[in-house]
């Protein structure tokens, strides 16, 4: 097990629910930006993932890390969703078919809502047809697609292609830990995001900054 510099990330690696909760509250109280806190939690989760890959942790630990994350999101939400209530545009978002990870997507949803966007969340394991339908129904200029599993790459590509074929004017941002310029090109997306903050930047590029 690698020992992480960041106490909060390390508490997540140790699956120490009480300590994670305490440090999150402490940092929020000290005025640490919420996205910085998210990035510490994300780093801890990434290490939990590495340990799972190496056989040091099992599925039960992966589930537990997810549960801890869900718990602290209750504290993070009001800070992410501190929006003014104005409606700056509609964004359809979901995790692509074959993938049920949603913790990261949910953070993005909260952040975008907090920034004043109308977010239609389709959930997880979403078939490409459902994305196309929702984009048409809500006339959404931007679609966010989450893919955390590399095995969902083909599904991500197909979903981007379906949206581009059905609603050519819609822009697509793909998000997840393995996204980069090459994956963006491969999928034919317009933007890629490895953090919730990148998602907000994509929204601002489409809808215009404040
Ligand atoms: C928690 C977890 C789970 C939980 C998920 C709970 C949930 N409700 O989401 C459970 C236990 C269900 C799970 C299941 C599985 N998991 Co899992 N899981 C993880 C873990 C540890 C953390 C993921 C996480 O929540 N991270 C924290 C969030 C905040 O970060 P994030 O997801 O990256 O999201 C941020 C950005 O990527 C970005 N973002 C994400 N989506 C989007 C979308 C948009 C539009 C934008 C703009 C931005 C954006 O913004 C977010 C916030 O900053 C990762 C390890 C890792 N490296 O991530 C493994 C990991 C993803 N899992 C893995 C695996 C293998 C599985 C299983 C196949 C295990 C199994 N044998 O069953 C199943 C897959 C089930 C399926 N079909 O999807 C592997 C994937 C390997 C690979 N190469 O793809 C990982 C990497 C672990 C590992 N290293 O082996 N998992």
Describe this structure in words.
The protein is an alpha/beta fold and 210 residues long. The chain folds into 2 domains: 7-80, Methionine synthase domain (Methyltransferase, Methionine Synthase (B12-binding Domains), Chain A, domain 1, Orthogonal Bundle); 90-207, Rossmann fold. The chain is 56% helix and 11% strand. The protein has 9 helices and 5 strands, in the order H-H-H-H-E-H-E-H-E-H-E-H-E-H. The chain has a 5-stranded parallel β-sheet, sandwiched between helices. Helix 7 (153-166) links the parallel strand 3 (142-146) and strand 4 (171-175). Helix 4 (59-80) runs parallel beside helix 5. It is globular and about 45 Å long. The N and C termini lie far apart (43 Å). The mean pLDDT is 92. The structure holds cobalamin (B12).
């Amino acid at each position: 097990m690698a020992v992480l510099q960041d106490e909060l990330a390390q508490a997540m690696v140790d699956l120490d629910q009480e300590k994670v909760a305490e440090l999150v509250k402490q940092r929020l109280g000290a005025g640490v930006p919420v996205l910085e806190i998210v990035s510490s939690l994300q780093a801890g989760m990434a290490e939990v993932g590495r340990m799972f890959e190496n056989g040091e942790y099992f599925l039960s630990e992966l589930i537990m890390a997810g549960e801890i994350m869900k718990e602290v999101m209750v504290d993070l939400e009001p800070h992410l969703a501190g929006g003014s209530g104005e409606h700056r545009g509609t964004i359809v978002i979901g995790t692509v078919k074959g993938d049920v990870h949603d913790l990261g997507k949910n953070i993005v949803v909260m952040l975008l809502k907090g920034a004043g966007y109308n977010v239609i969340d389709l959930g997880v394991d979403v078939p490409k047809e459902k994305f196309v339908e929702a984009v048409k129904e809500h006339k959404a200029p931007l679609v966010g697609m989450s893919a955390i599993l590399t095995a969902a790459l083909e599904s991500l590509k197909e979903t981007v292609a379906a949206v581009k074929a059905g609603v050519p004017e819609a822009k697509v941002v793909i998000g997840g830990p393995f996204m980069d310029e090459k994956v963006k090109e491969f999928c034919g997306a317009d933007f890629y995001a490895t953090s919730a903050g990148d998602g907000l930047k994509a929204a601002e590029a489409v809808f215009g900054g404040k």
